[in-house]
Amino acid sequence: MHHFHYSQGGLFVEDVSLQSLAEKHGTPLYVYSKGTITSHFTRLDAALSGLDHLICYAVKANSNLAVLATIARLGGGFDIVSGGELYRVIKAGGDPRKCTFAGVGKTREEIAYALDQGIYCINAESEAELRHINQIAGELGKKAPVAVRVNPNVDAKTHAKITTGKSENKFGVDFENILDVYARAAAECQHLELRGLQMHIGSQLTSVEPFVEAVRKVVPLVQEVKARHGIQFFSIGGGIGINYRQSLDSGPESWWQENENLHPLTIQAYADAVTPLLQPLGLRILCEPGRFMVGNAGALITRVLYEKRGAAKIFKIVDAGMNDLIRPTLYEGWHQIVPLKQPATGEVEKADIVGPICETGDFLAQNRELPPVQAGDYLAVLSAGAYGFTMASNYNTRPMPAEVLVDGAKATVVRERQTLDDVLKGERVE
Ligand SMILES: *Cc1c(COP(=O)(O)O)cnc(C)c1O
Hints:
Elements: E1 4-7, E2 10-13, E3 16-17, H1 18-25, E4 29-33, H2 34-47, E5 53-58, H3 65-73, E6 77-80, H4 83-91, E7 99-101, H5 108-116, E8 121-124, H6 127-140, E9 144-151, E10 173-174, H7 178-188, E11 192-198, H8 209-229, E12 233-235, H9 252-262, H10 267-278, E13 284-287, H11 291-294, E14 298-309, E15 314-318, H12 327-331, E16 337-339, E17 349-354, E18 363-370, E19 378-381, E20 402-407, E21 410-415, H13 420-424
Parallel strand pairs: 4-20, 5-6, 5-13, 6-7, 7-8, 8-9, 9-10, 9-11, 11-12, 12-13, 15-17
Antiparallel strand pairs: 1-2, 2-3, 4-14, 14-15, 14-19, 16-19, 17-18, 20-21
Helix pairs in contact: 5-6, 7-8, 8-10
Bound molecules: pyridoxal-5'-phosphate.
């Protein structure tokens, strides 16, 4: 689901021409559709209506304050993985009492900050961390709400770099040890309140089976932990995959009809599969989508700088690089790339779309059939709303791109393009 479509010969997001945004704000430029984010939130919320549930948006997918504020206003909670992300959520008007804190390496400062802010739950990923949280809570005179993340050892059948629920991954506590960990925490950690149990098996899952397998495996454990320790919630994590191939010729509603059916994993299928397994638990169910909420809501706009016709390949050299969008390099991520000017014919040529960074791995697409585009033309790299800007860096001393949020006919710069002085801030010569 998204609000990107061709109209009047050009690509629009909602009611705004992307060409006009590119000309006004320069490139590379991230553009997000508020309507897409809102629609994804409300559709998932409705799909989960058979459960007492809370959507905790995974902030790491896209942490722009305006994105977080959009989700906070819809009543969403947040899944954070650092003190910095909690700081952002609070700045954006999010409620810490709807936040969970994940991650294997939380520091003393981050744990103390989260407890001070009254976070809903800290999801511990090891017994050592539980003891650390207990100690800090004791020092602060608080009781720390905690859950333990279980590693269910199921194969999410996704890319190796985004699989998290196998025993060889660093995440969570082994399934076999969970009950002992809870028992020891209950007996020995008086500053902890055992509030829930959490799992997250991976990202960009495109079938419902791994979710079902993991839930089926973990539900009896949740029942046991509930009986023994009186927990309030079970979090099933995030990981709902999105469709990276889009139809751009129709408006959002018909797009939803067409593409929901094409997608191997629809949220209705997801909800229908997990609801009957989870309902009997009588617990609050947390769901932590990141990519699903924002992935299709964003595009990275870039301009063609040069064309190079080499002996073996055609290269389109563009002004966005792996420092702006690292998914193709890091995860072999496939992004649909389309010209902002609607192609008049079906003519295509095969090219590599590469950035200006001095790395062979700096590409946005390889061997891609693309309508003929020339220097000066703009391209949209679609479905770049998740793990796009948040993974951007200043590599090659390149300023971070600007970000624009579109809401109907209104476009707001929600993060200004960095200046070179911004990039150098804090540095000095001896
Ligand atoms: C990254 C992460 C998520 C979100 O994953 P998506 O695939 O973006 O939905 C949810 N929960 C935890 C613990 C995570 O680390």
